[in-house]
Structure formats: C-alpha cells, structure tokens
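Hi R.,

As promised on Friday, here is the backbone we talked about, encoded as structure tokens. Could you run it through your design pipeline when you get a chance and send me back a sequence?
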C-alpha cells in the first residue's frame, strides 16, 4: 500500500512540475506589491467594414507599492494584434494596450475576440481584454441602420495627407438621432462634427483631417460613434494613413456582395 501511495504522489508531483513548465508565465515574477487597475475590459466597435482594421486602447493603471510589469499580451487569434509601448509601469503611472483587429474580406456578422494580459499582480496575474464588432460588406455602408454612411472608411497617402476627407451620414429611421464620439485617435486624426440632432431623412457631415501633431509616415486607427437610439447602435470608421501612394486604392465595384449581407447575422465568426 505504501508503495502505491508513493507512486501516486510521485506522479502527481511530476504532473504539477510539467504543468508549470508549460506555463512559465505563472511563475515568471516573484511575490510583489504590484497592483493593476483596469477600468475598461470590454469594448464594442459596433458596425465595422470587412477587409479593414479598427483599434481601441485599454489602459492599465499601476496602483501598488511596486512597479507593474507586463509579461505579455496574447491575442486569442492572429486577426488581432496587441502592440505594447512599455512593459514596466511605475506606481501611479499607466500603460496603454492597443488591440488592433482586422476583419477578413469575406467576413460577415457578429464577432467577439479576446486578448490575455499577464502581469506581476499576484492577485490578478492573468486577465482578459475583450471586444466585439458587427461586420458588414465594405461596399455597402449605405445599407446600415438607423444611419447609413456614404463611405465605409477614410484613407490618406503622402500626397493627400493635407486634404480634409468627408463622410455623410443619413438618418433612415423615424426618429431624430444624435451621434456621440465614444473613442477616437485624437493625436492622429482631427474630427469636425456639429452637435445637432439628425432629423428623420436628414444628413450630417463628418470631416476628418490628419492631425498637425502627427509626424509619422502611417497609421491604422478608427473612430467609434454611438447613436442615441434604443439599441445605442455603434459605428466604427477606420482612418488610415498610408506611407505609399499605391496603398490607397480606388473604390471597388459592387460586384461580390449583396446588400442583404450587411444585416446578415448568420455569417459571423467568434
């Protein structure tokens, strides 16, 4: 009996050591007084075009006695990127975690994606950041509701970066609608939008321009808006600055998608 018990204990110990070796991030940091505070762990992009990228920044606040150290940010799939600007955050400071999601050309419907953050907070070493989106064919921004769009995204290249780009919104509902900015890349793109409600059948113009504070060559960002309808419908508009002129292509012909696809719930993927 003692021999059986000894063998069982040895097997259990070996399995524990093997599991630890497979997940080194769980023991990568010694005990610390680091504390992470995350006020927002979930974000809704709402309507976004396929074959395009949107992004959102989550902020990790260091609130403990020791510096917060971020071991890694691991998206659940390859369609999401998570560039990290700094991995050590002094107490009282904050770090930005940007999740960038690109929808596939043929993608439709609702999606939910996650990324796991591993840090040296002994009580919250692993936690998830999440976002959701409803993907429509980029050729048909005029098929959405309660607002339609004249274009699905805004793009510049080096030859057009000083130009103002516009998107027209049309209220196709039966009630006045107001639009609020939920999130946007203020240091990259400036937005001009009046605060007036859009009456039924009325329009509103959104004017986008590359910020004078931007000194780089390219970026891939997005603006997210919310309507004041009952569903609080959201829209995300990609804003892209291309380093090369050839990267900005002319509008595509409406040949491969149907307008009914824009409201199709059956083709989403998680």
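Update: got your reply. Pasting your designed sequence below so it's all in one thread:
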């Amino acid at each position: 009996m003692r021999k059986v018990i000894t063998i069982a204990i040895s097997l259990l110990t070996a399995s524990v050591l093997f599991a630890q070796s497979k997940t080194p991030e769980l023991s990568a940091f010694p005990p610390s007084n680091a504390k992470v505070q995350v006020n927002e762990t979930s974000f809704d992009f709402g309507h976004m075009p396929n074959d395009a990228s949107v992004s959102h920044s989550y902020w990790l606040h260091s609130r403990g006695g020791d510096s917060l150290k971020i071991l890694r940010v691991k998206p659940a799939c390859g369609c999401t990127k998570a560039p990290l600007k700094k991995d050590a955050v002094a107490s009282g400071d904050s770090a930005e975690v940007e999740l960038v999601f690109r929808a596939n050309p043929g993608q439709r419907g609702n999606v939910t994606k996650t990324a796991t953050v591993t840090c040296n907070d002994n009580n919250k070493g692993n936690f998830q950041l999440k976002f959701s989106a409803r993907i429509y064919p980029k050729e048909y921004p005029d098929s959405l509701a309660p607002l339609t769009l004249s274009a699905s995204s805004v793009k510049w290249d080096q030859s057009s970066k000083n130009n103002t780009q516009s998107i027209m919104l049309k209220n196709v509902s039966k009630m006045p609608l107001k639009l609020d900015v939920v999130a946007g890349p203020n240091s990259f793109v400036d937005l001009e939008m009046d605060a007036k409600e859009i009456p039924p059948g009325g329009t509103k113009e959104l004017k986008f321009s590359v910020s004078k504070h931007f000194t780089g060559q390219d970026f891939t960002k997005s603006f997210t808006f919310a309507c004041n309808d009952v569903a609080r419908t959201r829209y995300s508009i990609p804003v892209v600055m291309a380093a090369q002129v050839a990267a900005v292509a002319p509008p595509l012909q409406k040949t491969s998608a149907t307008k009914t696809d824009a409201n199709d719930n059956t083709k989403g993927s998680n």
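One thing I noticed while checking it: The chain is about 10% helix and 40% strand.

Thanks again,
M.
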